[in-house]
UniProtKB/TrEMBL annotation:
Domain C-type lectin per the UniProt entry, residue ranges: 37-125, 134-228, 236-300
Protein's name according to its UniProt entry: C-type lectin domain-containing protein
Signal peptide, first to last residue: 1-18
Source organism of the structure: Phoxinus phoxinus (Eurasian minnow)
Keyword annotations: Signal
InterPro entries: C-type_lectin-like, C-type_lectin-like/link_sf, CTDL_fold
Amino acid sequence: MVLLSVLLLLWGVPLLTATGRLRQLFLIDTQMPMNVAQNVCRKDYTDLVTIYDEEENNELVHILNNSVKSVSVSGWIGANSCKWSNGDPATFTNYSRTFTEEKCCGAINTGGRWECVNCNSTKMYFMCYDQDGKQSYNYSLIHENRSWFEAQIYCREKHTDLVSIRDETENKRVKEAVNGSNSFWIGLQYNYSLDWLDGGHSAYTQNSSSQACFTFLSRENNKLGGFWFKCNAGIYYALCYKSFIHVSEKNMSWDEARDYCNRNFSGLLRIESENDQKETERELKRRNISWPVWVGLKES
């Protein structure tokens, strides 16, 4: 008998949400930086929201308009087009006032601010990192003038990668490691593609431009809308989502899967509508699951 992963449904009772059977949207009514918003969403829900279509965009407008009484109100979403050389999304930024909105690579100046510099035509020193455990980085400033991509190759061959900066503390450490040197490359790549922080595969965009992080703007000067705005920093509400689809870590037969789901959750997943089918496909794709999984359908 072929054993398949078991797909199961987990139910909860959310507050401040848009309703949905397999996926629900939440507003965290506390303003916070983007990296904090992502941590909160991942701790208590699934992640910052990925927006798949205009209908969902409008649902988020409705949540913000009905939950926050303010002339202007914005919330973080999971759209991100700024990433580090090691593939991590940039959820903390420290752009200079002269940072331009174009494809470029990141350099840090003597003041600790990030500059947007042409990746190929400019050559400068660069900083690599070695990872000491899961959280700690060791930094090495390389005194060789190279393009960003040449620097990336060097760091990957001799260290871990070009340096990533995840928060203000790390930015300060990188700045101090410079010891008065001129600007040098860091691992930032800006405006190369629009990704979603949860790994979701959404082709929907509200505008054609993209930047390191977005705010979702619901209301500006009492005008309703659902516009995405670029933002380098700031504090906003968090728009999270929770998926009620769970995939087991172990393979089992259908009968074992049914017993497991009945014992621990609300039963094997029932696909009861086109929307259920769509949400299931999105969640499996987000998790990069391409193999078959059990659902609750059984021929009598």
